[in-house]
Write a structure and sequence with these properties.
This protein is of the alpha/beta class. 46% of the residues lie in helices and 13% in strands. The protein is globular, with a radius of gyration of 21 Å.
Length: 288
């Protein structure tokens, strides 16, 4: 009886691993060709007992399924004995030294021809947190502790940049100019021009300081007017262009498909941002 239960557990694990590989739509060749060349995996890669693409695949499994690190089915990814602690070690190492951000910049620069920059969409996300940690605060609308992050996407919904996490008790306009400047700087490093961009954003971003920032940086802002501001000045607003903003909601839906970032369990905000960057990279590679 016990043998049957063990066999059924193994069969279930194998099923979920194969199901993950089909659903992720990022084949092993993409891990080897597009991701691994930018990862520092040991001094002499040939002498390591595992390959870098195997570690990346295990990290992607955790990103997609949202399982705990200690519950990673490492036997399904590695032919030799390898622990989940080693997989986590590489993830946190690449998070701290900025490897995931460099990877995202290289992939974005290489495949920028796939982007639709006719307009860009800006939106904020509040993610519930369960274990506390850095950049966590109570959000009254969600009635729980959350982390806030801004996402910039193109006109297809492909993520272009994401901000650092801030505590959920701050609104989307918190340090908006500083955050947007950092996101645009990342795009320029990828040789993506930001001059003359049409920017769609909801009423939560309607501040005079942000409108002046957009004008200073040659960005045409199409921000929904927030009547609670009490300003009598009328800004130009294009309803037809604003309809394109719905694609950022689709971006949020794509991001929510990665269960590891649907609810935040990471206590370190650097690790949390790294998971979002990795999800953005996967969304772009799906277009290949």
């Amino acid at each position: 009886m016990l043998e049957r239960k063990n066999d059924s557990k193994i069969a279930v694990k194998q099923y979920f691993v194969s199901f993950f590989q089909k659903k992720l739509h990022v084949r092993q060749k993409y891990c080897k060709k597009e991701m691994c060349p930018y990862l520092d995996f040991g001094k002499i890669n040939r002498n390591t007992k595992v390959r870098d693409y195997q570690v990346v695949t295990a990290i992607l499994y955790r990103l997609k399924t949202g399982c705990q690190w200690r519950h990673l089915p490492v036997k399904q990814f590695f032919r030799v004995s390898y622990s989940w602690q080693s997989v986590y070690y590489h993830f946190q190492k690449w998070s701290k030294d900025g490897t995931w951000e460099r990877l995202w910049s290289k992939v974005l620069e290489k495949y920028k021809h796939l982007l639709d920059m006719s307009s860009v969409q800006l939106d904020g996300t509040h993610t519930p947190t369960k274990r506390g940690g850095e950049a966590v605060g109570y959000q009254g609308r969600k009635k729980c502790k959350t982390s806030n992050m801004l996402i910039l996407s193109d006109n297809q919904g492909i993520p272009l940049a994401c901000s650092d996490a801030v505590s959920g008790n701050h609104n989307d306009a918190f340090e908006l100019e500083k955050t947007m400047d950092k996101m645009l700087k990342g795009l320029r490093l990828c040789n993506i021009s930001t001059d003359g961009l049409f920017l769609n954003a909801d009423a939560g971003f309607d501040t005079e300081a942000f409108r002046k920032y957009c004008f200073k940086n040659d960005i045409v802002d199409n921000i929904d007017i927030n009547h609670r501001n009490g300003s009598d000045y009328e800004h130009l607003f294009d309803d037809l262009l604003y309809k394109c903003r719905f694609v950022v909601e689709r971006t949020n839906a794509w991001m929510d498909a990665f269960k590891a970032i649907l609810v935040r369990f990471e206590t370190n905000k650097i690790h949390w941002k790294a998971l979002n960057i990795l999800a953005s990279c996967v969304i772009l590679l799906r277009k290949l």
